Amino acid sequence: MASVRVVLLGPPGAGKGTQGKLLRDRFEACQISTGDILRKAVADKTPLGKEAESYLSRGELVPDDVIVRLVGERLKQKDCANGFVLDGFPRTLPQAESLEEILKTMALPLDAVLSIQVPHDVIVQRLAGRRNCQNCGALYHVNFDPPSNGETCDRCDGGLQQRDDDREETITTRLRVYESQTAPLANYYRERGKLREINGVGKVEDIQKRIVEALGRPAS
Ligand code: AMP
Asked: Which residues touch 132 (CB under 8 Å, ≥6 apart)?
């Protein structure tokens, strides 16, 4: 199995989580979603969770040093031996620079940074209807991808919930933070020849196909 080392870049609601899970399964890589790690830490009331909680609830970014340490440790774990899909990291220029250092030390250069492009109105629609299973984390959308019985998870029958930060007030802050702090990373990676722009509108399978093609690994 060929390895893969990619960053998924894109605003909240671009589909990074959905596409990241598919890439993880396709390439037997690990998926590192900093948002998922932080939400779990908050739920488990760990020291990291206590530190991160107020940033998450406001839709603001957790300090760079906390996140960089977390990802650096995660990348060393066994399930990342065949590659990684970074979902939600890096999100600032200092995070991107730290990642470059970490990967240099590990002699694991990035294959590509996939910038998933979705118009603003589609993002707002997607975020407002997004739900996830409290038990297994599976993702749904009340209109575009509802569970078959309309209420509980198809995979494990768990209850569905809306993320606290998917409420309207916080969505606005998250999109503003994305534009000011994360969007400039596109240039950083373009200058390094790593950026691949992906049209993120359409069916999940079609977007995955575009991603795999952009990686130069057409679907078999
Ligand atoms: P996400 O699930 O990727 O939308 O992330 C949810 C929240 O977790 C963000 O709004 C931030 O508060 C925090 N977060 C996730 N990733 C990062 C990161 N790389 N840097 C700083 N904060 C992050």
From this structure: 138, 139, 140, 160, 161, 163
Would you say residue 46 lies in a domain?
A: no
In 3D, which of 32, 19, 42 has the Cα closest to residue 165?
A: 42
Q: Which is nearest to 96 in space by CA: 197, 5, 7?
A: 7
Residue 96 in any domain: the answer is yes
Residue 10: domain span: 4-29+82-119+173-214
* Cα 56 to middle of ligand 1, angstroms: 7
Write the pLDDT tens digit of every residue in 5-29: 999 999 999 999 999 999 999 999 9
Residues contacting residue 112 through CB under 8 Å, at least 6 positions apart: 6, 7, 194, 195, 196, 214, 215
How many A from CA of 60 to the centre of ligand 1?
A: 8
Number of folded domains in the chain?
A: 1
Q: Is residue 23 part of a domain?
A: yes
* Ligand 1: residue whose CA is nearest its atom 8: 35
**31, β-bridge pairs:** 85
Positions marked active-site: 16, 91, 130, 163, 174
CATH of the domain at 112: 3.40.50.300
pLDDT tens, residue by residue, 79-110: 999 999 999 999 999 999 999 999 999 999 99
CA atoms of 171 and 11, how far apart (whole Å): 11
